[in-house]
Amino acid sequence: APHDLAIRGGTIVTASDRFRADIGIRDGRITDIAAEITGAREEIDATGLMVLPGGIDAHVHLAQPTSDGTVMADDFESGTRSAAAGGNTTVLPFAMQVKGSSLRDCVSAYHAKAEGQCYTDVSFHLVISDPTPQVLGQELPALVRDGYTSFKVFMTYDDLVLNDAELLEVFEVARRERALVMVHAEGHDAIKHMTRRLEEQGKTAPYYHAEAHHQIAEREATHRAISHAQLTDVPVMIVHVSGRDPMEQIQWARKRGMKVHAETCPQYIALTRDDLKGLNMDFEGAKYVCSPPPRDADSQAAIWEGLRDGTFEVFSSDHCPFFFENSEGTGKDNPRARTSFKWVPNGIPGVETRLPILFSEGVSKGRISLERFVALTSTNPAKLYGLYPQKGALVIGADADITLWDPTRTDTIRQENLHHGSDYTPYEGMEITGWPVRTILRGQTIVVDGQVVASKGQGAYQTRGTSSALA
Ligand code: URP
Ligand code: ZN
Ligand code: ZN
Ligand code: ZN
């Protein structure tokens, strides 16, 4: 039978090499990779373009309820629309356990929110906030077997923090059930202490979030998470690593043979703590408040080194979108947040700008190779989160999830061109060289030249296999 679609004339880029070839697609899968593929029902001319496996954003927050009434700016519809426009074909949001609730019920609630709404494929990481015997003994093992093969734990935030005893118990379950545990490593008590002292001195502007969430508190928690993982003999993924100090802990552990994996994010290469100053230590700085916060030029340099040398295997957005202002006063700019940085909702949007920022700052500026870009943004997340080789690879039999990339297209990041729900982007005005020009999900074009042409509901839920970290 003829191919449904052929992508012709482009340069295929994988995590390890690049070559000129056409791709033939049938029934949503790659069925042929050859020098010349003719006779397909439809052809896409990719001359001058790079043909990449679709972006996989392994760390996004969509439609999460918050305890303080702040409303997340993206639901599954707008969040996955924005992801698709940014060259992604799969996103992994979190299904967050609410304390006192059954984990299974929380997961069901996220499925209900996602059902029929998505433009990209999706799969959920779990968040364990209440590790009761019921959760650790029954619910979590059953969910891992059902394909929720990764979960996140938090070492800070009043509603989410686990103590060391709880962390160790959860790590043991991860080991027994062969799930990948992701850790938000920031020391809760140190942050609370720093916050109190800053507030006593009247230092309440958004900027002081960056001092309270000090890199030393991140370094300490990173070391503690690694030590607990060593004691329980389980691999860990340290997520959203912000700078040199926590990186050194990861490198220290790796040198000793510990199975520590690490993720970093665009805010740690494209922003610094100075952005939190806003215009003049004013509330504009709240637009950049996220945890961990962006650091300084030295940490940015360290992060680039880590992206090159394999300290980081995954580059995700940590898209966690809030409104800056909205009419209901449920955005970052709310009356309580004006009284102290500690009430500013933590998180920034970035699912649509993740790939352009890494490509432009990394590949176009010669800091990382094209192959490394593909590894960090698609192939490695697919492997580490149990989606490979169905996702993250351009090989025969894989899903035809493909992003066509124009490495020469230059454009400025502008809020008005983005598809997310937030009313701002922290990257406003950034000049970018290299943009996605077409996103293809299982053989169907979902975005072309910035226009979303898919209908919502084309994205499907993906059950995942075991992480390569545990294989
Ligand atoms: O500030 C951030 N990153 N908010 C999102 C939640 C998290 O910790 O990843
Ligand atoms: Zn986190
Ligand atoms: Zn690894
Ligand atoms: Zn996050």
UniProtKB/TrEMBL annotation:
PANTHER family: COLLAPSIN RESPONSE MEDIATOR PROTEIN, HYDRANTOINASE/DIHYDROPYRIMIDINASE FAMILY MEMBER. The keyword Metal-binding applies. CDD domains: D-HYD (cd01314). This is Dihydropyrimidinase. Residues 50-445 form the Amidohydrolase-related domain. It comes from Pseudooceanicola spongiae. Keywords: Hydrolase, Metal-binding. Signal peptide: none annotated. Carbamylation allows a single lysine to coordinate two divalent metal cations. Its cofactor is Zn(2+). GO terms for cellular component: cytosol. It is an enzyme of class 3 (hydrolase). The gene is hydA. The modification N6-carboxylysine is found at residue 152. Belongs to the metallo-dependent hydrolases superfamily. Hydantoinase/dihydropyrimidinase family. One of its GO terms (molecular function) is metal ion binding. Its EC number is 3.5.2.2. Gene3D superfamilies: Metal-dependent hydrolases (3.20.20.140), Urease, subunit C, domain 1 (2.30.40.10). InterPro entries: Amidohydro-rel (IPR006680), Hydantoinase/dihydroPyrase (IPR011778), Metal-dep_hydrolase_composite (IPR011059), Metal_Hydrolase (IPR032466), Metallo-dep_Hydrolases_sf (IPR050378). NCBIfam families: D-hydantoinase, PRK13404.1.
